[in-house]
Amino acid sequence: MNDSMEQQVAGAPATSRAAAPRRLPSPGSPPPASPAAGSVAVVLPCLDEAGALPWVLARIPDGWQAIVVDNGSTDGSPEVARSWGATVVSEPQRGFGAACHAGLLAARADIVCFCDCDASLDPGHLVPFVGQVVAGEADLVLGRRRPQARGAWPVHARAGNVALARMVRRRTGLRLRDLGPMRAARREALLGLDLTDRRSGYPLQMVVRAADAGWRVAERDVAYLPRTGRSKVTGTWRGTWQAVRDMRRVLAEPPVAVRDGVAR
């Protein structure tokens, strides 16, 4: 990481909050202003994230649409999201991929971003991602997570991510350092990939099929904070094993030809 990027991540406002309990703004507080970025939607897959949603939604860039996809919450997450002005989509099929894809289908913006809504990632950091896509510098921009506090990224999860990145390099040739959830691309192009995984393999399948289609894939460093609540994936052995199994299945798929933006 170069000096300027290191300073940007280390100096992000979220960094200083990582060591102390967060103070969530009240629903009446306006979200912070940010540069206009065109027609953009942010898909936020959600399962019992009522405690984190205010922090996340307050940081959606001005003029962007927030789409919270509820995947069976029982803690009032949909109501919290609506109170903050988000579009709420209900997806009864359980699974991270099912929630992400429901949000992609519901979006009507030209560019669609994805971000976890557990307060580990600041959606405001997506602005330069969108800028690269709009400028034609990249077709898919991924966030490389840079932990800002001890415990933000468990050792076993980080080690698994490194191993996965190596497998992706062997499969696709892409030299990635992270396969995190924060990303941006054009909606129609994403739909053309014909993504089929509806579980933990969805983000990986997006990258693999994008590589098969010859997309230009870029990475940007993003500050990674301790999440609010327990992870549904790496927080349990069962979730971790399910994610590994889903991703192995994706990597075993034969290359899918994509012509004119449509998978064939």
Any descriptors?
alpha/beta, seven-stranded mixed beta sheet, two-stranded antiparallel sheet, 264 residues
Structural overview:
There is one protein chain. The chain has 264 residues and is an alpha/beta fold. It has 10 helices and 9 strands. The chain has helices at 3-10, 13-18, 53-57, 77-83, 96-106, 127-134, 155-172, 187-192, 202-212, 237-251, and strands at 40-46, 65-70, 87-90, 111-114, 140-147, 183-186, 217-224, 258-259, 262-263. β1 (40-46), α3 and β2 (65-70) form a beta-alpha-beta unit. The model is unreliable at 1-37 (pLDDT under 50).
* Class of secondary structure makeup: alpha/beta
Helical fraction equals: 25-40%
Unreliable stretches, pLDDT < 50, 5 or more residues?
1-37
- How would you sum up the global shape? globular
Give the N-terminus to C-terminus distance in angstroms.
38 Å
Question: Which SSEs are present, and which pair or pack?
Answer:
Layout: H1 3-10, H2 13-18, E1 40-46, H3 53-57, E2 65-70, H4 77-83, E3 87-90, H5 96-106, E4 111-114, H6 127-134, E5 140-147, H7 155-172, E6 183-186, H8 187-192, H9 202-212, E7 217-224, H10 237-251, E8 258-259, E9 262-263
Parallel strand pairs: 1-2, 1-4, 2-3, 5-7
Antiparallel strand pairs: 4-6, 5-6, 8-9
